[in-house]
Amino acid sequence: MDQEKLEKSVKIAKNISIAVIFLVPFSYFCWFYLENQQPISLSSADWGAFGSFFGGVLSPVIALFAFYWLTQSILIQKKELSATQNVLVETEKVQKAQALTQEKKRFEDTFHSLLGQFNIVFESLNETIIIHNKPQASKIKKLYNRTMKIQVDPTREKDSLLANEDRIKERAALMREESIDCSHYFRILYHLLKFILLNHSLKTIPLNFNDAINTEITEVEKFYSNIVRSFLNKEVTQLLAINCIAADEIDDYYKFRLLVERYALLEHIRLEQDWLKELFKYYKPSAFGNHPEAINKGNLTN
To answer: Under 8 Å CB-to-CB from 210, ≥6 apart: which residues?
Structure first.
């Protein structure tokens, strides 16, 4: 019931009540005084009886109107309360949507900031320096050459498989020792991937790493991790694969390896040398995504 109809109903009920109040004594007067020629009594007992009659007639009428408007007021309050609750629900939805938008903006701002820093560091490491008019290999290229071209002691080459395993382990150890100039580049990459893992749900309180890494990967994670992977060139991808070899949880690079496996960062790795194919023994197939070699390996795990 809108305000105009409510005011109109109240006015009608008020007019009916006033009319009844005047109609009862007027009918009494017409019947006794005009019709039956009864004089106005001077006895208090007669007026007491009249008062009882008057009150007996009006009381049920007034009580009926009072009961009616009491029930109407309850219904009106109920409707108003329901409307208020609906408004509160809609307001809560709007607030949640605004909070989600703010969290998404915060996530994207931080992500793009980290990604920008990641690219700046790479550009500085990949910069070619000219010395005496001769271009010198960049820092990342030097690390790549030292890591990929290490020679294995021939006396330990009992068979080709052992030689390949030794090459990978020695390259991993060498890279970690000599990557002083490039180590912060891989640290930024690790924290960028970790940020995606822990904050992709857009919650104010991020997830715990151990809990988050065991959840099913979401489309949001795939989207942002694919962006990161697109910035990894051939050399960086191969170095990353060697750098993140970790056998168990006590290894400092174990969590990094889990992120590599979760986001298939080695999907586009080039296996130009035979010994690189031994990397499949150190990672789960998920690390290689849809790489043809990974598909051929089937369910091979580390």
So the answer is: none
* Mean of pLDDT values over 74-94: 80
Torsion of CA 283, 288, 293, 298, to 10 degrees: 70
CA distances from 174 to 133, 145, 157, 247, 254 (A): 30, 11, 19, 17, 18
Distance CA 285, CA 295 (A): 8
pTM comes to 0.66
Residue 169, CB-side half-sphere exposure with 13 Å CA sphere: 10
Q: Quick one: which of 59, 48, 65 has its CA closest to 24?
A: 59
> Is 287 within 8 Å of 260 (Cβ atoms)?
yes
Q: What share of the chain is helix, strand, coil (3-state, %, to 5)?
A: 70, 0, 25
> What does the pLDDT look like over 242-283, one tens digit per residue?
989 887 888 889 999 999 999 999 999 988 888 888 888 889
